[in-house]
Amino acid sequence: MEQHYLTDKEIKTALSDYRRLVTAFDRQVAPDDIDGIKAAIKQHASADSVARDRFGLHPLVSALDTAVCICDSFGADRNMCLAVILSAISTDASETTLAQKWGDDIAKMVRGLDKVRTLYSRSPSVESENFRKLLLTFAEDIRVIIIMIVDRLRLMRAINHHPAEKLVHDTANEVNYLYAPLAHRLGLYAIKSELEDMSLKYSNREIYTQIAHELNQTKAKRDAYIADFIRPVKEKLEAEGLKFSIKGRTKSIYSIWNKMKKQHNTVEDIFDLFAIRIIIDCPPEREKPECWLAYSVVTDMYRPNPMRLKDWLSIPKSNGYESLHITVYGPEERWVEVQIRTRRMDTIAEKGLAAHWKYKGIKSEGSLDTWMNNVRDILEAGQHSPMELMRNFKMDVYSHEVFVFTPRGDLYKLPQGATLLDFAFNIHTRIGVQCVGGKVNGRNRKLNYKLESGDTVEILTSPQQEPSRDWLNIVVTTKARNKIRAVLKENANKSAEIGKELLQRRFKNRKLDYDEAIISKTVTRMGYKDAIAFFSAIGSDEIEINDVADTYAEILGRSSKAEDLAERISASQYVLQPKEEDEAKDDAGNDVIVIGDNIKGITYKLARCCNPIYGDDVFGFISAEGVIKIHRCDCPNASHIRQKYGYRLIRTRWSGRAGAEFAATLRVVGKDDIGIVTNITSIINKEKSVSLRGISIDSNDGLFAGVITVGISDTAALNQLIKKIQTVKGVKNVQRNK
To answer: Beta-strand (E) ranges in 168-293?
Structure first.
């Protein structure tokens, strides 16, 4: 590196920056600090020579310029500014010496900045190990990140038209990949936009110049349009008694370029090229009401696009950003983005996380600390190439969370893409396991519904619900995935125990000896990987137990019949009571189901796949658990059951007289007219023998489709109810669900 003295121009610039710093600090910095820095600067400036950076810039001038930029961006911060200057002029001082004179905090930041400088002196390119060390250095202290972002801003401003084109191009790429995303994550939006614009300028000057030229050509027209848009809004806001300032702006050149690439449009075709910012002056307790009042004023005057409402007022970003963004259809059929915020919010938006710390009176934020710790863990793992690391790093800083509410107002944070099922498991494992769906903002949604920030979610559960392997494709959170796998494994083990017991019982009746070695061969012969999956398939009726016995006997070398008549279950062997949740009795308390040859008191359950009611033609099916399930003869599963398990069927009929209440589901389709649902429910409520248990309505393109669940005594009453609902004006069709 060549050595050079300070030029007259550099001395003049350094003195100007020094005076600005002294003025900015005013009484915030002790006289001893000023004297100490002044003496150190003089000593460094009077040195015979200094090592300039790879662009030929003097480190003292660069450090003072960076310190001034810090003051401009965040206000005077003693430790950060002193750390920047001392890092440039105290290159030989040890960390202990710096700590004794300036304090541990400044010494720590100087050490971090020295590491960064050392890494950059080795190579300007992003090499694997150096890049990882660079990011690890950043992760040690977040203020080092802020200093380096501001330093890169200073550098980018200084190297316009620098003769070392490749070096400028590489620096621009590095800023775009690393420093601009970091600035975004820290809420430094003004710095982020300037860094991105200059990166585009240095890496693709032709495109940058073209867009800048088009913007300059239309500036007068654009300014006139913004003035016309603002004028009536300003008058209305003043009439509401709000104190505010309002200004218009055009998107950054980099942002316009991204829009052009994505939408394949020209500058004039970018629909949200314009943006208006309304900044309200009000006390903290009036911030939200007055922002929403301004929102009401704007949307009353211009038609809003509800799909582009961004409410960071109710739920601020993790970096402290608060604002209300809406896009409205302005004059000349142009879309205009309107940002509504208070003076405090605007300061945070412009100056980022550092301003947020000042307002909150704290030193750091937990969410950001967590993020930085995650970054540190990834880097220390050291398993990524430099470009992959860069891509992952950029993706991480742009990640978003989803914030949703319970009906009671409790707030939960989930990763973007989380589903209703993720939310259920996030609340409690039991709720997740029994989840059958939910209501999002009052509307019924399925398990795979992807949640959005601001949603109010109510989880619906059923004790009969059990997880399936398909659930693993629905959830995105690790917690939900692990819980589902655990329950599936537990259920498989339980089903395997039942299956093994059933198989041993069948072997006993067929006088087959149970041999583990032969069982292993049977498992392989029937295409299963392990015994757990095999026995579980038996327990859940996925495979026919007689087929297993036949295969086992064949391997054993014995003949066996496909069906063992001696094993068929006779209804007279069971004299049990029905389960409480499926009791169906007449008014005298007698069973209304008769199974087989006039046998009562048998364990049975009404099948949920078809929900039979009194009067339906029914049949009984003996399940593997020894419970008889009652199905309608026209049940959707009847054909499969008769074909595969004909030997388990048993005659069943209704007895006694109607009196018990059964659940029946009706599907209603009709015109989406006002009052039609009220008329339907009114008819149901007037029926003495009918009770309304649930109703779900969806409307689309002038039609509605409803699913109504009622409690009813028999088929005669159900048919009568269907006829009455069909008489309601607008109803097109009423059918009982199968």
So the answer is: 244-250, 274-280
Residues in Cβ contact with 402 at an 8 Å cutoff, skipping those fewer than 6 apart: 413, 414, 415, 416, 417, 418, 451, 452, 453
pLDDT digits (tens, 9 = 90+) for 111-128: 888 877 766 654 444 444
Q: Is the pTM of this model over 0.85?
A: no
Mean predicted lDDT score pLDDT of the chain: 77
Q: Is 338 helix (H, G, I), strand (E, B) or coil?
A: strand
Residue pLDDT, tens place only, 120-169? 654 444 444 445 445 555 556 777 888 888 999 999 999 988 888 888 98
Average pLDDT over residues 517-538: 83
Distance of CA 272 to the CA centre of its chain: 25
On whether the CB atoms of residues 631 and 617 are closer than 8 A, the answer is no
At 256, the amino acid letter reads I
Q: Which two tokens stand for residue 545?
A: 């137990």
What single string gives the DSSP state of each residue in 165-180? HHHHHHHHHHIIIIIH
DSSP string computed for 5-29: PPPHHHHHHHHHHHHHHHHHHTTSS
Amino acid at 245: S
> Rounded distance, CA 712 to CA 284, Å?
57
The phi, psi pair for 727, rounded to 5°, reads -80, -10
Closest CA to 471 of 439, 446, 444: 446
CB-based contact 327:337 (threshold 8 Å): yes
Q: Which residues are CB-neighbours of 104 under 8 A, at least 6 positions away? A: none
In this structure, the number of other CB atoms found within 10 A of the CB of residue 732 comes to: 11
User: Tokens at residue 78, please?
Assistant: 């003693």
Instruction: Please name the residues in contact with 548: beta carbons below 8 A apart, sequence gap of 6 or more.
Output: 503, 506, 522, 526, 538
Q: Which two tokens stand for residue 238?
A: 């003043």
Calpha distance 687→695 (Å, rounded): 16
Q: What is the pLDDT of residue 693?
A: 83
What are 618-676's pLDDT values in tens digits? 888 877 556 788 888 888 888 878 877 776 788 888 876 555 778 888 889 888 776 78
A 10 A CB-CB count for 6 gives 19
Strand order in the sheet with 435-440: 443-445, 435-440, 457-461
Nearest to 427 by CA among 445, 444, 404: 404
Q: Which residues of 564-585 are buried (b: 16+ CB within 10 A; e: fewer)?
A: beeeeeebeebeeebeeebbbe
- C-alpha–C-alpha distance, residues 322 and 125, integer Å: 37
**725-736 tens-digit pLDDT:** 888 888 888 988
Q: What angle do CA 614, 617, 622 make, to 5 degrees?
A: 95
Element (H, E) at 387: helix 386-397
Per the CB < 8 A criterion, the answer to whether 344 and 181 are in contact is: no
Nearest CA to 614 out of 641, 639, 632, 637 is that of 632
For residue 105, the SS3 value is helix
pLDDT in tens, 665-717: 888 988 877 678 888 888 888 887 788 888 888 777 778 888 888 888 888 88
- Give the whole-angstrom CA distance, residue 268 versus residue 258: 14
Maximal CA-CA distance, the chain: 115
Q: pLDDT digit string (tens) for 389-408?
A: 444 444 344 345 676 778 87
Contact status, residue 658 vs residue 603, Cβ threshold 8 Å: no
pLDDT, tens digit (0-9, with 9 covering 90-100), for 260-295:
777 677 766 665 567 899 999 999 889 999 999 999
* Residue at 316: amino acid letter: P
8 A C-beta contact, residue 245 and residue 346: no
Q: What is the pLDDT of residue 608?
A: 79
Token pair for 190:
């003004």
